[in-house]
Amino acid sequence: QFDSRFSQSGLDAIAPVLSTLKELAEKYEKTLSQIALNWLVAQENVIPIPGAKTSSQARQNAGAVGWALTPEEVTKLSEVSAQWRNERGPLG
Known about the structure:
With 92 residues, the chain is mostly helical. It has helices at 8-28, 32-41, 55-62, 71-88.
């Protein structure tokens, strides 16, 4: 079965999340994944476990720590993520 997240409406729904990630990535000169991992680190009771198959990927993941998004940026990402999750419904 086709995953609705990859339909046009699914891609449209996640656009605000991607836009916010891109905006912050440019500001901090980081990758989207580094921004996302840093945001996860800022959450209470969340321990992100990023995958890495190569040393290059591990180094890229390490770029997510040693700096911090502002509280306002964490809130902004949380809000756009929540809107996306709410639009997807309980089963996505």
